[in-house]
């Protein structure tokens, strides 16, 4: 994709977010656009940084490590978010590289993240991932366990939980999942909600998303790969 198209895509998404937010009685500035750059090389990402975009999402620690340290040298104020599953043996690298972790999903990861953040002196904001569809193969805590899990993250491990994140089941109408995540977050007093991707981010904004994660809607279709 040429640079002009890439930047136009990003601006179109921002405009659509602003419109959906206003229609829902919210402010455009209440919604952050995370540009999901997984599978795309640094050369593709660079023009977006040059155009002023700062918030990016990656779903693999190793891939992000290969691309982002150099980009960050040039753009120290960028914000990199982990939006994919985290293995405990990657927690150290993840804490060093990312600015936000959106996929805290099980007690073991809570423990190792808390230890690494303490060790590195980097207390990152995190989101707890909720498996709203209760899919067996999907990461995330089930809705009924969200409250106890968030409490343990905060009180036993001192994590800075700022919100909830979800990926609705493929093939389901996403709106009920977004509404469920919003209800849970309200009940837990959590201000931020990461929900909505290229195909459904406008619904997510209407239902209260404060962060949307848009990949193909900005960068174009990805080559197939698992995850
Ligand atoms: C890849 C990915 C996205 C972006 O998906 P698109 O459909 O390309 O917008 C959003 N969230 C997560 C967790 C992802 O892995």
TrEMBL record:
**Sequence ranges assigned to domain Alanine racemase N-terminal in this UniProt record:** 14-222
User: InterPro entries given for it?
Assistant: Ala_racemase_N, PLP-binding_barrel, PyrdxlP_homeostasis
Please list the residues that carry the modification N6-(pyridoxal phosphate)lysine. 38
Q: Which Gene3D superfamilies does the entry mention?
A: Alanine racemase (3.20.20.10)
Could you list this entry's UniProt keywords, alphabetically sorted.
Pyridoxal phosphate
Q: What's the superkingdom here? A: Bacteria
Q: What does this protein do?
A: Pyridoxal 5'-phosphate (PLP)-binding protein, which is involved in PLP homeostasis.
Give the record's family classification.
Answer: Belongs to the pyridoxal phosphate-binding protein YggS/PROSC family.
Protein name (database record): Pyridoxal phosphate homeostasis protein
The organism of origin for this protein: Parvularcula lutaonensis
């Amino acid at each position: 994709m040429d640079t002009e198209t890439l930047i136009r895509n990003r601006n179109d998404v921002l405009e659509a977010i602003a419109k959906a937010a206003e229609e829902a009685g919210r402010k455009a500035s209440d919604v952050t656009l995370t540009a999901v750059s997984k599978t795309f090389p640094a050369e593709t990402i660079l023009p977006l940084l040059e155009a002023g975009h700062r918030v990016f999402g990656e779903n693999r620690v190793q891939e992000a490590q290969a691309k982002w340290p150099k980009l960050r040298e040039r753009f120290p104020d960028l914000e990199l978010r982990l939006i994919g599953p985290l293995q405990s043996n990657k927690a150290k690298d993840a804490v060093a590289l990312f600015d936000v972790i959106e996929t805290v999903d099980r007690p073991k990861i809570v423990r190792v993240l808390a230890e690494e953040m303490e060790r590195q002196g980097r207390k990152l904001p995190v989101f707890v991932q909720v498996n709203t569809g209760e899919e067996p193969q999907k990461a995330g805590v089930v809705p009924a366990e969200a409250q106890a899990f968030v409490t343990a993250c905060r009180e036993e491990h001192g994590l800075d939980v700022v919100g909830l994140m979800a990926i609705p089941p493929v093939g389901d109408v996403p709106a009920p999942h977004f509404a469920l995540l919003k209800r849970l977050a309200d009940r837990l007093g959590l201000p931020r909600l990461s929900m909505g991707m290229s195909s459904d981010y406008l619904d997510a904004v209407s239902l209260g998303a404060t962060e949307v994660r848009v990949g193909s809607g900005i960068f174009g279709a990805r080559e197939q790969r698992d995850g």
